[in-house]
Structures are given as C-alpha cells and as structure tokens.
Design a protein that fits this description.
The protein contains nine helices and 14 strands. By secondary structure, it is of the alpha/beta class. α2 crosses α6 and α7 runs parallel beside α9. The structure holds 4'-deoxy-4'-aminopyridoxal-5'-phosphate. InterPro entries: Aminotrans_V_dom, Pser_aminoTfrase, PyrdxlP-dep_Trfase, PyrdxlP-dep_Trfase_major, PyrdxlP-dep_Trfase_small.
C-alpha cells in the first residue's frame, strides 16, 4: 500500500507502535483469552489498565496529589456544560476569552447556566490572533476564567497563559494537551477530548484541583457532578474501556520516546519546518494566524485563489497527504501535526508544498 501521511484534525493519527500493540493483544488480552473490550470494567485486569493510564498521565504531565484525574464521556463538548454546572455558582460570574469557535461554544453553554462575561475576544481579527495582553481585569466575584489553549480550527495557540491570581484558570486543551511542557499548578481545571494527542475518540480527560470539589452543588444531576466521578474513580458507570486502554498505550509510547520534553522539541521542529515552507513561499502560501499566535499543532493557510487551494488539496490526496482540508467553517488548508505525526511526514509534506509551488508559480 502507498505511504499515507495522516494530517487529520481529530480523530487523528495514532502511533503505529500503539496500533500494532493493540492489534497483537486484540483477541487475547493479558492471557485472559478475551479482548479487553469483553472484560468487565470491575475486573482486576481492567483495573490495572485504568490505573496505569491515570498514573502515566500524572507522571508525564507532572500532576501532583492536589489534583484528580477523571476519564469521562461526552467529549470536550460536554465539558462546556459540566464546567459551569459545577463551578458557576449563584452570585458569581464566569469569564471567557474568545479565541475561536470552540471557545464561543463553551461561552454559549455557560451563558445558559449562569452569569458570564467576555473578558477578551479576538473575533474582530477573524481569530487570527490570541490576545497579546493577558493581564485581565477579572470581576471580583469571578468563579473562573476559561480559555481554549489551542484553537484547532483557526490554528492559533496560547504560548503563555493568563495570570489569574486567586481566580481558577480553566483550559480546554483538547488540541494541545501533552504536546508541550506546562505548569499544571497554573490551572484549576483542564479538559481534553482524547482524539488528537491522547488516543481514540470516546474518552475525555479532566484534570481538576481537589479544592474545587467541596463547593460543587449537590443538586446537579449525578452523572454531571465531578464529585460523583471522583468518588467512584471514574467508574460510576461503565467507562469507555477500550478508549482508556488505547490511552494507556499512547501514554506509554510518549514515555518510551523520552516524555513530554522530547515530544515538545519534535513538535517545535515539525511546526517550524511547515511554517518555513509558508514564510519562504513568496506569498504563495498565505498563513491564517499572525506569527506570535501560531499554533504548533494546526497549521492553517490558503493559496492565492480558491481554484489553486482546491487543486492543492486534490493533488495532496493523490500524493498520500490526507486530512488537509480546512474546517468546513473557514475552508482553506490545515495540517494537523499532533504528537503521533512524524517529522518525516512533515518533511514529505514540506517537499510536496515546494513542488506544488514550483509547478504553479
Ligand atoms: N475543543 C476543541 C479545542 C476542539 O478542537 C474540539 C474538537 N475538535 C472540541 C472542543 C470538541 O470536542 P468533542 O468533539 O470531543 O466534543
């Protein structure tokens, strides 16, 4: 089969080693004679997988015992509602920084639940930037400040995070979790759907500070209450066992590859290579994001005409470069280069970009 370079935005590329390991264990997991999918979520064998995923994530991200790690369902989208349901209490206001479609959605959900405020927005720039000044004047009765750390659709990323003092900082890290070293202690809650950097769709990771838990109202529905999942170690109801198993394999893969620092270095190199192809193209490839706000995960650009963009995308597929169409809401091109996308795939794509430019300039 022809080599495929997978630049899908999510679900997206998984490490080949992980897929091979899952394949080898598919019919007989750990000498049980069964697939992991057929085991009880209450069994000892599954419990080990669950605990391994949790402890590897804590180790790789430097998560201390001040935090709980949860494996939930409903995607990052459910967190748009769960965060305010649990934390936006009567008399307080939740502040949102709008940097793209996903933060707009998170804000809209919170607005259905309680009082909200848009503390900053880069909508006027067509979301080409992240706010440059992140010293926000937060209301004194703030329940939290919410940001989207990486904007998957527009290809922008926070490279430093707002200082919020006593106000809890909450981040939707769906598209850059585990791609670079972060200081967990700056955040009160982080959530991320797994299907970009962590594994397959179906599991959502939530990392939250324990001191948030006592103030969560008991009146909210049981399965939407973080306390329910904390008390039951994410086993209140049947968890997505296969997705959590693959998450544990992806985390093991990150560890075997030297951990987050090594992955970060590689991600920086991959992104620099593709941004260089754009910057050195004499305007043939036009980036969406401004330089300071560029994402290392989603590289967004267009070509001088709609016709050329279409031709580029079609030729890319012919050459084995998959998933490069921009999000349906903005069009253009987007190369998503999450952790599992190799430097070699980026190099091959960069050569393709030069060849395409030469033949169409
Ligand atoms: N937030 C961000 C930053 C995303 O990129 C996405 C999905 N692409 C979502 C939220 C929504 O995630 P889900 O489909 O898991 O609900």
């Amino acid at each position: 089969m022809k080599a495929i370079h997978n630049f899908n935005a999510g679900p997206s590329a998984l490490p080949k080693e992980v897929l091979r390991e899952a394949q080898a264990q598919l019919l007989n997991f750990n000498h049980t004679g069964m697939s992991i999918m057929e085991l009880s979520h209450r069994s000892k064998v599954y419990e080990e997988v669950h605990e391994q995923a949790k402890s590897l994530l804590k180790e790789l991200m430097g998560i201390s015992d001040k935090y709980e790690v949860l494996f939930l369902q409903g995607g990052a989208s459910l967190q748009f509602s769960m965060v305010p349901l649990n934390l936006l209490t009567e008399g307080s206001v939740a502040s949102y920084v709008l940097t793209g479609a996903w933060s707009e959605k998170a804000y809209e959900e919170a607005s259905k639940i309680g009082e909200t405020s848009i503390i900053a927005s880069t909508k006027d720039s067509n979301y080409t930037t992240i706010p440059t000044d992140t010293t926000f004047n937060l209301p004194i009765n703030s329940s939290y400040l919410h940001i989207t750390s990486n904007n998957t659709i527009y290809g922008t990323q926070f490279h430093s995070y707002p200082e919020t003092g006593q106000v809890p900082l909450i981040a939707d890290m769906s598209s850059d979790i585990l791609s670079k070293k972060i200081n967990i202690d700056s955040f009160s809650l982080i959530y991320a759907g797994a299907q970009k950097n962590l594994g397959p769709a179906g599991v959502t990771v939530v990392i939250l500070r324990k001191d948030l838990l006592p103030n969560i109202p008991a009146s909210i529905p049981t399965t939407l209450n973080y306390n329910t999942h904390v008390k039951n170690n994410s086993l209140y109801n049947t968890p997505p066992t296969f997705a959590i198993y693959l998450l544990s394999l992806v985390l093991k893969w990150v560890k075997e590859h030297g951990g987050v620092e090594v992955i970060e270095e590689r991600n920086n190199k991959k992104a620099s290579l593709l941004y260089r192809s754009i910057d050195e193209s004499d305007g043939f490839y036009i980036p969406h994001a401004t330089k300071e706000s560029r994402s290392n995960m989603n590289i967004t650009f267009t070509l001088p005409t709609e016709k050329l963009t279409k031709e580029f995308l079609a030729k890319a597929v012919e050459n084995g470069f998959i998933g490069l169409n921009g999000h349906r809401s903005i069009g253009g091109c987007r190369a998503s280069i999450y952790n599992a996308v190799s430097y070699e795939s980026c190099e091959a794509f960069s050569h393709f970009m030069s060849r395409f430019k030469k033949s169409n300039f």
